[in-house]
Amino acid sequence: MDPAEEARLLGLARRGDMRAFGRLVDAHQPAVRAFLRRLVGSYADADDIAQEAFARTWEVLHRYDGRSSLRSFICGVAFQYWRRGRRADNRRLARDTAYSELEDSHTDAPQNTPERLALRRAMEELPADQRAVLAMCLGQDFTHAEAAEVLKLPLGTVKSHITRGRARLQAALGLTPETNP
Questions:
Q1: What is the number of other CB atoms lying within 10 angstroms of the CB of residue 64?
Q2: How far is CA 6 from the centre of its chain?
Q3: Chain centroid to CA 136: how far?
Q4: Can you give the pLDDT of all 181 residues of the chain as single tens digits?
Q5: How confident is the model over 95-135, as pLDDT tens digits?
Q6: CA separation for the pair 146, 135 (Å, rounded)
Q7: Residue 57 burial by CB count (10 A; 0-12/13-18/19+): exposed, middle or buried?
Q8: Within a 10 A sphere around the Cβ of 7, how many other Cβ atoms?
């Protein structure tokens, strides 16, 4: 979506136009859902969080000041929603694990190659902030500055998370910087 159209729709949405907001959601939901899927590791939970995040974005749209992209703002809302929800994740973890195993056993899709499953497991082992930074910067092509703003982390911390997280993923996958293609 071009910036002028996004600005026009944003203005309408701020005045209560749900159709305009719906068009903004349509434009940004692929990026938000992809970020959350990498962060959460479960398609179903990521999609649920994305829906809640878009609903929450509607409520806090007046807080968007335009200093960052709307995509970054929405991903920030989604990340904060996910982070708050993690406090109750112990009960959900058992259900998600069972769902993931069921999904893996019923799917012959390319996303379930041994390498992708190993990567998903390795991502799940990372600390939450590190996983979020990698999902945004490596998975969704956010800049380090955008990730820092969305995640409310210092830029240096984001860069450190990228370096350390990448190294941890490479080690978990049996890769070294020299053998990484």
A1: 19
A2: 21
A3: 6
A4: 899 999 999 999 999 999 999 999 999 999 999 999 999 888 998 999 999 999 999 999 999 998 889 999 999 999 998 888 776 655 555 555 554 554 555 555 455 577 777 788 888 888 888 989 998 888 888 899 988 998 999 999 999 999 998 888 888 888 765 444 4
A5: 555 545 545 555 554 555 777 777 888 888 888 889 899 98
A6: 12
A7: buried
A8: 13
Distance from C-alpha of 115 to C-alpha of 13, rounded to nearest angstrom: 42
Which residue's structure tokens are 């920030």? 76
CA distance 89 to 5: 38
For the entire predicted model, the pTM comes to 0.62
Residue 64 has which token pair?
């968007």
| Cα–Cα distance measured from residue 10 to residue 23, given in angstroms and rounded to the nearest whole number | 10
CA atoms lying within 13 Å on the CB side of residue 51: 5
Q: Which amino acid is at 149?
A: E
Instruction: Report which of 79, 52, 54, 53 is spatially closest to residue 133, judged by C-alpha positions.
Output: 79
Please state, in angstroms and as integers, the Cα–Cα distance from residue 152 to each residue in 71, 92, 136, 145, following that order: 15, 26, 13, 10
Question: Position 52: which residue type?
Answer: E
